[in-house]
Amino acid sequence: MTVLLIRNARIARPDGSNFDGDLLARDGRIERIGAGIDAHADETIDARGQLLLPGVIDPQVHFREPGKEYKEDLGTGSRAAVKGGVTSFLEMPNTDPPTVSQAALDDKLVRAAGKCVANYGFFIGATTDNLEELNRAQPVCGIKIFMGASTGSLLVDRPEDLERIFADGTRLIAVHAEDEARIRERRARFQDRTDPAAHSEIRDNLCALKATELALRLSKKYHRRLHILHLSTKEEVELLRRDKPAWVTAEAIPNHLFLNVDDYAGQGTLVQMNPPIRTKEDNAALWAGLRDGTIDFIATDHAPHTLEEKRRPYPQSPAGMPGVETSLPLMLTAMAEGRCTLEEIQKWMCWGPAAAYGIPNKGKILEGWDADLTLVDMQTRRAVRNEELFTKVKWSPFAGRELTGWPIYTIVGGRVAYDRGRIREDVRGKALRFVIGDR
């Protein structure tokens, strides 16, 4: 049994209010919240008035293991996560080999149990011929479908294959919504372009909208639980604002909130990703969609590649950026600037993802709930520095940006995993449970 006492914290309530008090965690659960708690503890943290938040749940990361561990692995990815206040993550199936079977899922679970300092869960990837595995593999948070932007067996773009998956089963389906046929047509049209800005023209707004429209039609036809990953365009926001059934959710990512096509001039292929960065008008539409509930929560789509890979000339350069350890400071900085509230941040980054994926007892600071927490410094502003990042690739598209809200401590299951700049290597996260009912 481990007992942790946090004193003198500014404790965030789910409604966005906060109060000065103490928190006692015993054996991984929050036992008591209040003022002047007097209890024996194995460890006591003096928060000195800093803000105590629920641990962030990042529901979309690519930690590259197995197969591409030179870019990231479950150990380094989870360490970057807790440095950023992320206590739980959901990892994508496009590894090598891909996570498309129970055997591949079991392999990832064993790997994660041995090295992850954060809690973990995994998607199973859809192919054109693994429907039985999609519906039977356990435990998974959902089915991932690459409607575009993938290669090999994980690309499922034919309408008849998509319909078969939507029609059979009840599990959540999460889609990377880009229209593969339009990508190919526009890639041929722009084949002479070698400037990175062409990426956002090839994979234009209509490319995303067409795929989202198709996924939404299939979801409505079969009343199938649908989640739209990394929504990126104003047109998709407008579509969902008009027509979003109760069983459909959507997410945005910081890359699409804080970056836009103007950033190609300074960063080139470093800001190349799928779906691509868009315009300032799209940025504004995504923020509006978050505020009015059209977009439900935030993920990062942490997708690291080495600097050597990213500096290849376009289009040989790979798409994707790291982001798991900067998402919370980016959002807390936005809060400090008046762009969102403490209640919204907890909804978008903590209890919202937990509710969508059926993860019980996480995402709120409440007695009896899991002691997954992060204590953040809202008084200090400092720049993102590549050399200080824990991700294996050691770079960020936000390098040089001044942020506040950096985690000081991150607590996973009642134990300190991140401690003022260092990882406590004896801490291990746990496999997440998923309790999904009808929405």
UniProtKB/TrEMBL annotation:
One of its GO terms (cellular component) is cytoplasm. InterPro entries: Amidohydro-rel, DHOase/Allantoinase_Hydrolase, Dihydroorotase_CS, Metal-dep_hydrolase_composite, Metal_Hydrolase. SUPFAM superfamilies: Composite domain of metallo-dependent hydrolases (SSF51338), Metallo-dependent hydrolases (SSF51556). Its cofactor is Zn(2+). Catalyzes the reversible cyclization of carbamoyl aspartate to dihydroorotate. GO terms for molecular function: allantoinase activity; metal ion binding. Keywords: Hydrolase, Metal-binding. The keyword Signal does not apply. Pfam families: Amidohydro_1 (PF01979). Belongs to the metallo-dependent hydrolases superfamily. DHOase family. Class I DHOase subfamily. Residues 52-416 form the Amidohydrolase-related domain. GO terms for biological process: purine nucleobase catabolic process. It comes from the Bacteria. This is Dihydroorotase. PANTHER family: ALLANTOINASE (PTHR43668:SF4). The keyword Metal-binding applies.
